[in-house]
Write a structure and sequence with these properties.
Keywords: Cell membrane, Glycoprotein, Lipoprotein, Membrane, Signal, Transmembrane, Transmembrane helix. This is Copper acquisition factor BIM1-like domain-containing protein. InterPro entries: BIM1-like, BIM1-like_dom. It is found in: Cell membrane; Endomembrane system. It is a lipid-anchor. The two termini are about 15 Å apart. β4 and β5 form a beta hairpin. The longest helix is centred in the C-terminal third of the chain and has 29 residues. The chain has one domain: Distorted Sandwich (Coagulation Factor XIII, Chain A, domain 1), CATH 2.70.50. Helices cover about 25% and strands about 30% of the residues. It is α+β, with helices and mostly antiparallel strands.
Length: about 200
């Protein structure tokens, strides 16, 4: 009987780990709103009304910071104005947690351009959406450029959507998360085999 309780607890812990890892959050600038249950609803994760308060972003070296629950994912950033949608960023990452996603603007974006930035995130279990309402400006003194952080230790390149090679400490972080998942899975497989014997 005691073994069955351990098995149930183990399965519950794995299920909770997967639930936590199933989403991302837009951490800088903050999203319009966040509801984990609505994050899969396009276009803005259930928060489809533009905010009256817009964040001022610089025309050069702008970025969005996210926190990912997945160890591998792809993303796309769209600028939405009325019925026009322009892709301003895309890429993929192979590490969880903090990630700085660069925004690449074309010449149509000018000082004072209002737009909604939509982040479309794909961690392998369906598309997720979050939005932030912004105004692009030549000068954005309140923009926190130090918020551009990558968990793997790499630097974000603003000339394109790639990042430099990760540092060795960043690789340890990603591999540590993978090793933990493999370890939990192995433990559960051994436990399950033991209980069936």
């Amino acid at each position: 009987m005691y073994h069955r309780y351990i098995l149930i607890i183990g399965i519950a812990l794995i299920a909770m780990q997967n639930m936590v890892l199933a989403h991302f959050t837009l951490t800088y600038p903050s999203s319009r709103g966040f509801n984990e249950d609505q994050e899969s609803v396009a276009p803005c994760g259930g928060f489809n009304t533009a905010s009256a308060q817009r964040v001022i972003l610089p025309l050069q070296n702008a970025f969005i910071e996210i926190n990912s629950g997945h160890t591998s994912y792809s993303y796309q950033i769209n600028a939405i104005s009325g019925n026009d949608t322009v892709q301003v960023g895309q890429g993929s990452r192979n590490y969880p947690q903090a990630s700085c996603l660069p925004i690449q603007l074309n010449s149509a974006f000018k000082d004072g351009t209002n737009t909604t930035l939509q982040v479309v995130y794909n961690g392998g279990d369906g598309l997720l959406y979050q939005c932030v309402d912004v105004t692009f400006a030549n000068s954005a003194p309140s923009f926190n450029s130090s918020a551009c952080v990558n968990q793997d230790g790499s630097k974000t390149s603003f000339g394109n959507s790639s990042t430099s090679s990760p540092s060795s400490s960043g690789n340890q972080s990603s591999n540590g998360t993978s090793s933990l998942s493999v370890g939990v899975f192995t433990f559960m497989a051994v436990l399950f085999t033991f209980l069936l014997a």
